Amino acid sequence: MKVPVIGESVNEVTLSQWLKGNGEYVKLDEPICEFESDKATLEFPAEAAGKLIYVAAEGDDLEIGALVAKIDTSVAAEADAPKETAPPAKAESKEEPKAVEVATPVQETAAPAAASASYATGHASPAAEKIMKENGLTANQISGSGKDGRITKEDAQKAATSTSAPSSAPAAKAETSAPTPVATPTSFRRTTSRKKMSRMRRTIATRLVSAKNNTAMLTTFNEVDLTNIMALRKKYQEQFVEKYGVKLGFMSLFAKACAKTLMEMPDVNAQIDGNEVIHHDYADISIAISTPTGLVVPPVHNVESLKFHEIELKIKELAGKARSGKLTLDEMKGGTFAITNGGIFGSMMSTPILNEPQSAILGMHTIQQRPMAIDGEVKIRPMMYLALSYDHRVIDGSTSVTFLVKVKKLLEDPVTLLMDL
Description:
Elements: E1 12-18, E2 25-26, E3 31-36, E4 41-45, E5 50-54, E6 61-63, E7 69-72, H1 81-84, H2 86-95, H3 97-116, H4 126-134, H5 153-177, H6 199-214, E8 217-225, H7 227-244, H8 250-264, E9 271-273, E10 276-278, E11 285-287, E12 289-291, E13 294-296, E14 299-300, H9 308-323, H10 329-332, E15 337-341, E16 360-364, E17 368-374, E18 377-391, H11 397-412, H12 414-418
Parallel strand pairs: 11-15, 15-16
Antiparallel strand pairs: 1-3, 1-6, 2-5, 3-4, 5-7, 8-18, 9-10, 11-14, 12-13, 16-18, 17-18
Helix pairs in contact: 2-3, 4-5, 8-9, 8-11
């Protein structure tokens, strides 16, 4: 079995994990491993039924067409062999009942361990691995309850809870009875560890460095008063959910405001290709989505033509696929402009990095109640800082500032956005 052709731009993948053990019997089309490409994680199904024989190992970088595994199809007839060995054991138990009564418990406890032992045994899920690192736990200290003995997040949490309680008691005793308390802190020192970067993390790192080195990136800032946006959502949220089955969020409003402005200011929606500048008469807005393996930015196509509920439903769909690792390569392609929302993590202000080959990205941030001077009076308003990073080779400073001011005005007076004024 060889690495299949995944996409035009994908020349290499990483074998992220085996789903079946070495020597294990597999069925036709049953997933045997997962590949991690630059943009997505894909399952690799068995091309025949038989005994699986590993050729590559987890973490290996494999080129398209490289050998991954072999399947011994002659083993297919032996799949039911274990069932035939059961009757002789019963016949022996009739002849020597006393001997079997003593020996059977030992065999029964050993057999399941051997049967359940597979590559997954003792391996932790990403969430469990994080908890283990934070609490200084190893796989040997935890009994996995997941499939084939895999350590789940719940297993790691239970182990962390059980170890934290006992460890506090001896420490208390040591403080009262130990003659040399200076040695106590060193018992909590943890060692460093080394782990290979995932393919997605390596790709992200390469693209970010490329954006910093190959573009004339600059960031301009402004702030937006979200009083009217929040009042709009509060007044119509129930009706919106009842009719469309999805909430009216900030992202669709911001995306729509950006799309409308992009149509008026095509330079912000352009990109450089060699010595030429490509302009687009549509707004495919990439939405930054945080996943356990890294940040992905799938685009929502033709935002300028979509309605608010269509934008919200598409973002919800893409976010669900991204976090479950089911985004396809086609769903990752394209994008003429990007939006990232650091506010969901509490960021007050940042300078987002360009998503090449795009020329601009809008950064949203957390909403804070701040005193503002309104018509000669100080009033408390929900304010958000906006940041627009742009490629100065394509977009002039005056263009970037004008773009951000237009977006600000549309958001502060959403009626003009809804009426396309």
